[in-house]
Each structure stands twice: as C-alpha cells, then as structure tokens.
Prior knowledge:
The protein has helices at residues 28-34, 43-64, 88-91, 116-130, 168-173, 179-198, 247-250; strands at 68-76, 80-87, 103-109, 141-149, 152-160, 166-167, 201-202, 211-214, 217-220, 227-228, 235-241, 254-255, 261-267. By secondary structure, it is α+β, with helices and mostly antiparallel strands. The protein folds into two domains: 28-160, Phosphorylase Kinase, domain 1 (2-Layer Sandwich); 166-273, Transferase(Phosphotransferase), domain 1 (Orthogonal Bundle), CATH 1.10.510.10. Strand 8 (211-214) and strand 9 (217-220) form a beta hairpin. The protein is globular, with a radius of gyration of 19 Å. The model is unreliable at 6-18 (pLDDT under 50).
Amino acid sequence: MAKHKAPRPTAAVSSAKNKRVLAPKIPATFWDTLVPLYTGDDKPLAEKEKILFRRLLPEVAARLAPRYTLDEALDKGGAGLICRLIDQELTRLQKDPARQKVHRALKIARPVETQQELLNNIITHEFTTLASLTHTNIIKLYGADHVTLDGTIRPFYVMDYIEGATKSWEYVSAESTSFHDLLRIIQQTTEALIFLFDNSIVHNDVKPSNVLVDRGRAILSDLGSAVSLREPDKTTTITFTAKYAHPNKKENAIVTREPNRMRRTLPSSEIQKT
C-alpha cells in the first residue's frame, strides 16, 4: 500500500507533536452510536472497518486532547466518518458547563484498506479547500491533522457542528416550510456555489444531503470532490453521486464499491463541461 504524505496540521487542533497526550477514554455510548451506521452494509467489510475504528479513534482522541473529546458518531459517508466532539475549552466558559456543551464536528477518512489512498486524498483535499474559504453558507474549518496507524496516514479535520441542523430535503418537506423558505434555501445554496466558482472552485457533488439547514440558513458541506480550475491542464479524479450528476459527468465514469457513487478521471479544464 502506498504511504501518503502527511497533511500539514493547523494550530486549531491542539496536540503535542513531541509527546503523546493522554486522551480520556472514549465512552461506551460513543461506540453504541457507531454500530447503527453500518446497518445494511456488507457484513464482513463492515466488521473489519469497525474493528479498525476501535484502534484508530483512540489515536485520534489522543491527538485531539485536551481541547476536544469524542461524544457521538453521527454519520458515515462514502469517504469519511463524521462524529460530534465537545470543545472542552469553550464549554468551560459557559455559565453552566454541565448543561451547555459547545460542540464541533470531526470528519476522518474511513479505514478501508483497498481504497485508503483515494479516501485519504478526498479528506485531505476537502480540508485544504476549506482552509482558503470563508462564507456564511459554507461549512467552517477549525483545524486539521493526522495520525498514523499500521504505517498509513489517517487524516482528519474539525469543522462546525450545526446544532439542530436538518438535511435540506427534510427541511423543504416539512409542513411548516413555506415556498418563500424554499426559495431562500435555493438562493443561499446558489450564492455558496457562486462564491466557490468566483474562487475557481467547482463543488462537483451538489445534492440535498450536502446542504444543511440551520434555522433557515443553508450551509454547503462536503467539498471532498471539489476541484480547482486554476490548473486547467492538471488531471484530477472526482467522485460523485450518480443520482444527482449531470449526464455529461457520468460519461466514461466507473461505478465504485457503493453503487450510487461514481468516479471519473479527467483534466480540470473539462470539469466545467460536466
């Protein structure tokens, strides 16, 4: 397996580089929230991945300590696992720290040995893209780092946790959502995409699950397939959801291990045409 260059860590993730930080034990309740995320997956592969996470996540927790602690597993996408963290430093500043927790979200590359280089590249690309962006309708990055397990880099990053946020399709399907609300979500999502394009970036995987709604505000997330247009001659590989992709994008694309996910390699200059 190829060894991967470590992503450059940022100061926002508190960790000691020359000594190991003793992390709090991951609570049993966390592992209870991880198991359901694999419901319906291929059982042997799911069990293998969960075993690897049992070894990997304590290493990540140690790297995040003492500022962040793992709280709950939230979602599993094609490239990464998303977990809720507690920001211990900001929680201590609350009037009632026992009740008022300040949360962030962690996204870490899934430990899938046959696809590790691809998944690592997606997660690393996502946080390096986010590092240069600030927009009210795009998810915010707080820091990034990596651990090494079995000689392989395992990148992760910390981002906004949107308390009480809903997926966009759930929001627009709710009886309380008006037509005006729907137009606002479409407008804000479009503004986020225009902002990316103004910065020579194409998202490449826009779909309802990648748009969160926080108290009526649309937040675009998951930039793992985003591509910079500043290097038109560079060949790049994009991964996207077939159901929401333009027909041109699916031309010459191959189906990944997940039937609804496709992958295609092409010059950056061709991205705008898809």
